[in-house]
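Incident review: delayed structure delivery

Summary: a single-chain prediction request sat in the queue longer than the usual turnaround. Root cause was a stuck worker, restarted by the on-call engineer. No data loss occurred. The affected request and its eventual output are reproduced below so the record is complete for anyone auditing the incident later.

Affected input:
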Amino acid sequence: MSDMKPVVDPRRLDLTAWEHGSLYGGRDVSFGAMLGLEALGISYNEVPPGRSGCPFHNHHVEDELFVILEGEGEYRFGEGRHQVRTGDVLGAPAGGPETAHQLINTGTRPLRYLVVSSMGNTDICEYPDSGKFQARTKRHRTGGTFRMMHRQTPSVDYWADEPGAGETGAGD
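Output delivered after worker restart:
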């Protein structure tokens, strides 16, 4: 932990700029590791007007907390939509589609916020708008991450294509 810092000003860090299509884009940086935090993910995000930093999604394992530092937006949470502004704190607990969330900048200046998340070794993330899911887990022995993005349908039976299971296995 020789690179660990007791204090980090995320506004002074090199932000990574990105965009994808007409709705998604911003500048951000993750910095929890700089503070020596292994169980918490922390990022600073700047999202321009009319954009979002991520698709509508929910985590099955990880909790997320958003702190609005500057600007205003709309927080999609489950089936609701909530107006948010500077100083608001938003929760996105682990769960199913009822905890799906997305923050969209509806203001005229950049929306700046912190995201703090629990860092599960494994998580399943669903994307209700597109019917996708992502499975992710850290590889402890070899390092790196296993990540798979897939559609939820069509699903296959637990025993499908397993040697000796027969043509239509039943149960899990």
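Verification: The radius of gyration is 19 Å.
Action items: add queue-age alerting; document worker restart procedure.
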